[in-house]
Amino acid sequence: MKKKGILVVISGFSGVGKGTLMKELTTRYADTYALSVSATTRSPREGEENGKDYFFLSREAFERRIRGGELLEYAEYCGNYYGTPRHYVEGQLEAGKDVLLEIEIQGARQIRKNEPDAFLVFIMPPDAETLLKRLRGRGTESEEVIGQRMKQAVYEAQGIEEYDCILVNDDLEASTEELHRMIQLKKNETCRNLAQIEITRQEITKAAQEFGSGK
Ligand code: ADP
Ligand code: 5GP
């Protein structure tokens, strides 16, 4: 029996290591996970590719997709639109992949509301100093933008309890394995596997009857 995948939301402060963790997880477990590529109106960072890191769109093109119902969720973050294309996510879930959405908190709230089976994880830094060090160390944002993102982090910190679990991204290797375990445990919850449980129950009952009748 083909099992549908689980929808996983990954949020966390800018610079905490979400992108790095996603890359590590999808490389290690390429057959298990599909990472959704978001659409955004922000400019590409050096090295970012259209269609791989993001679909880079104009505001007009983005708003057309909103109107067309093509986005599973979307939000404005630090002056730019970000959103999840619906079609890819739904196809991958049907194909049995566990789909990872690396999105901020307003989008996570929309997923919580519209997709009640989704699993929401908030990635935490070991401490604030490490967060700032990582954000600066990445070297992709000006001090002004880093300031905006730290302010945004204060807002996001108010909503952490809305997530199902937290994960502290200290050692990358350990955090990747922990995240994988968390997701797979969640996927094995009895309430998500009622069809499979019923099939096994019927098979066992039949086998026990046959055993009893000496077949
Ligand atoms: P985010 O996607 O959350 O904004 P990134 O994945 O871009 O963050 O990571 C920010 C910086 O922190 C990058 O330079 C990355 O190499 C580094 N980083 C990520 N995870 C770790 C970790 N566990 N330990 C040390 N550095 C990390
Ligand atoms: P960045 O500009 O650093 O790539 O992303 C900024 C923030 O937008 C991050 O918190 C990231 O998780 C979030 N983000 C990326 N894609 C999406 C998306 O499709 N929807 C929402 N709501 N947030 C997103």
Characterize the structure shown.
By secondary structure, this protein is an alpha/beta fold. The chain has a domain at about 5-35 and about 95-215: Rossmann fold (3-Layer(aba) Sandwich), CATH 3.40.50.300. It has 8 helices and 9 strands. The strands form 2 sheets. A 5-stranded parallel β-sheet has the order 2-7-1-8-9, with helices on both faces. Strands 4-3-6-5 form a 4-stranded mixed β-sheet. It is elongated and about 80 Å long. The mean pLDDT is about 95. The structure holds adenosine-5'-diphosphate and guanosine-5'-monophosphate. Guanosine-5'-monophosphate (5GP) binds near residues 14, 102, 104 and 107.
Order of SSEs? EHEEEHEEHEHEHHEHH
Ends distance: 27 Å
CATH topology of the domain at 7-36 and 97-213: Rossmann fold
3D shape: elongated
Question: How would you concisely characterize the structure shown here?
Answer:
The protein has 215 residues and is an alpha/beta fold.
Keywords:
215 residues, alpha/beta, Rossmann fold, 5-stranded parallel beta sheet, 4-stranded mixed beta sheet, binds adenosine-5'-diphosphate, binds guanosine-5'-monophosphate
Write the layout of secondary structure elements.
Elements: E1 7-12, H1 18-28, E2 33-35, E3 39-40, E4 55-56, H2 59-67, E5 71-77, E6 80-85, H3 86-94, E7 98-102, H4 105-114, E8 119-124, H5 128-138, H6 143-157, E9 165-168, H7 172-187, H8 194-212
Parallel strand pairs: 1-7, 1-8, 2-7, 3-4, 8-9
Antiparallel strand pairs: 3-6, 5-6
Helix pairs in contact: 1-7
The protein binds adenosine-5'-diphosphate and guanosine-5'-monophosphate.
